Amino acid sequence: MGITSALVLFAVIWSMTFLIVLPIRVKTQGDLGDIVPGTHAGAPEVHNLGKKARWTTVISVVLWAIISGIILSGVISVRDLDWSGHMAPVAPAGETDG
Q: Cβ–Cβ contacts within 10 Å for residue 22, how many?
């Protein structure tokens, strides 16, 4: 896995984790009973984005390390995900096409 692949993997994991973490402990204007005229009652009043971004980063680093380790070790490869059999079979060691 190259540097670009590692960064893209981290960005995807971070984004997905952030979308999961966002709705946790959100207090809306309706929950607090202080609805600003012209806004929806479900609009967030207390969202703690900084804290959620930090937690997302910590969780993402752990997940990224685990997933990168699996990819780099070769425990799971792209061929393991080829359920329809579209990829060519792997040639035994020492044999080449020719």
A: 14
